[in-house]
Known about the structure:
mainly alpha
Amino acid sequence: xxxxxxxxxxxxxxxxxxxxxxxxxxxxxxxxxxxxxxxxxxxxxxxxxxxxxxxxxxxxxxxxxxxxxxxxxxxxxxxxxxxxxxxxxxxxxxxxxxxxxxxxxxxxxxxxxxxxxxxxxxxxxxxxxxxxxxxxxxxxxxxxx
Length: 145
């Protein structure tokens, strides 16, 4: 190996870097959500509602008990950001559906994440495209757990 060739990072180094970036992004997300009167968890629920999701599905995403999701959804419903709807395939299952107001508030949270946007602005179009492709490749394996 040439003395000028960069050494490939270890998996541990990659994981630590991903964790640091994820933590910074989460901190920015939580702070921006707070400006809109949402907890980070409430905003995370809204971010999961591109399509209706069953309460148990939200509990799995949040890695918490379904009873915890009930309280979160109650508070979002009180603000008219979500509504509950019976699942058409199984009326015993309650889906959580984002309202127009809920979709708008999470769009604004994502748009206003200044620290994250600023960090991404440091990348060129080619670097952004490359990063997106790499993260997109990692996503299925990361989400399968």
